[in-house]
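Anyone? Bumping this.
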Amino acid sequence: MSMDIFMQHLLNGISVGSLYALIAIGYTMVYGILLLINFAHGDIFMMASYFMIFAVVDFGMPIWIAIPLIILLTVILGMLLERSAYKPLREAPRMSIMISAIGASFLLENLATYLFSGVPKGYPDIPWLTKVVNIGNVSFQIVTVVAPVLVIFILIGLMWLVNHTKTGMAMRAVSKDFETARLMGIKINTVIAATFAIGSGLAAVGSVLWGAKYSSVYPLMGVMPGLKCFVAAVFGGIGNIPGAVLGGIVLGLGETMLVAFFPGLTGYRDAFAFVLLIVMLLVRPNGLLGEKSTDKV
Amino acid sequence: MSKEYILEISNLSVSYGGIKAVKDISFAVPKGEVVTLIGANGAGKSSTLRAIVGLEKPAAGSIKFAGEELAGLSTDAIVEKGITLVPEGRRVFPNLTVLENLKIGAYMRKDDLSKDIEWVCDLFPRLKERSWQKAGTLSGGEQQMLAIGRALMSKPSVIMMDEPSLGLAPIVVQGVFDIIKEINRQGVTILLVEQNANMALKAADQAYVMETGRITMSGTGTELLENDDIKAAYLGKSKK
Ligand SMILES: Nc1ncnc2c1ncn2[C@@H]1O[C@H](COP(=O)(O)OP(=O)(O)O)[C@@H](O)[C@H]1O
Ligand SMILES: [Mg+2]
């Protein structure tokens, strides 16, 4: 394999990994605060893609208006989901919330099938993301570079939020102890809603970048990325934000390299995530950057 | 001799499912005093405090704080009014530093905290030394100090403490009670729940005894210390 081709794969791997990272952050933040695997997260990502199609194709909005709008809509959808499917179960056993999450996921998938049909639609073209650039013999879409850079900025921003702001301090407190957080005067429902807002917003950002790479939009499009990004979050240490980013990148790179070095294994691309998960759970159940021992699941 | 009561509990009941943990109790806390609620395990002391601060919904009764009804309000609305609880088992946030634990105690405040952080650190010099340490790494006694310090940071007019001496070495317990008296001397009203009846009664102006959800006895701290039934039941001394 020549250096150029290797660079090409490396770049692809990192950029796919960055997309995974954006979605994985949502899983990890929600898990961190509610100890809940938000099974509907991948479907929120799917809905964001449909929002974009409606905004641009059906309503003819310019991209620069459509992007903030669909991020906003996705944030609202995520908060609505939390409000209706999870908030009423705040004091319920963990298993009930888990089942509610699975239900919410099915609901969104079937709602999308019912409303938008199962026939795939094309994601609107965003020229400044899909444009192909050549450097030497390596050629790539602009999104390939935009994704990792954006992820780095988002990670820095989130770490600042969590570790150096009052809201972040409240998030860390709520994640350990609802009751005592309430005693401090923290409105825990607001903090939890904010966590869902951030996770859903990032899923929407992820969907825009995703659409530039894989333009097919259909009701079950969130399932596989959702599962993989959950794996990425567990791999990095669920509850840990840099862990989710690291997990996403490792997963994206691993997958890409697997196919690059062993073309015969192309069909197993999606299986890679799960092999990674099994190995990780056997070797280091708390993930790469996870806390050593917790009272979590 | 009319006292000004900052906290008035009337006919309070608390139930868990069908089980009544607190049965129709009434008592009042005069402003500026130390009032203690003593009783054996399971008597309903914690349930009473938790109901006052809105962590449990009272099944019946009224809770008046400076004349305002608290029953039915959310916990954040209640603590905002100036009453706070140092929970049973301390419950510091282990993943936050000592300093962050103090700051989060003042979560609702928007003014400058530096003076009060200094005040709390003067009360508990150990906390100052360890301000950058994660609270989870502190000893039990230090965590109790932190939990009290954290509560003070909200500048409450009433602090309720649920068994602050639980699980602490006797010498540390003495320190905790010294602090309680000092905080009270500085003007904070205290409602203290204890199983350590001896220490609590010595510290208290007014005391109530709880048994299986009811208040069965009351009096000044000194009166109850001298009471033969109390001596037998809570102070480990046999009746004469
Ligand atoms: N969350 C709960 N669910 C059910 N029963 C409870 C709960 N908390 C306390 N109880 C019961 O209520 C009674 C009073 O408990 P508690 O108020 O904790 O007593 P104390 O603090 O005096 O030891 C006990 O019988 C206890 O088992
Ligand atoms: Mg108790």
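Late reply, but here is one note on the structure posted above: Chain A touches chain B at residues 166, 169-170, 172-173, 175-177, 179-180, 182-187 (CB under 8 Å).
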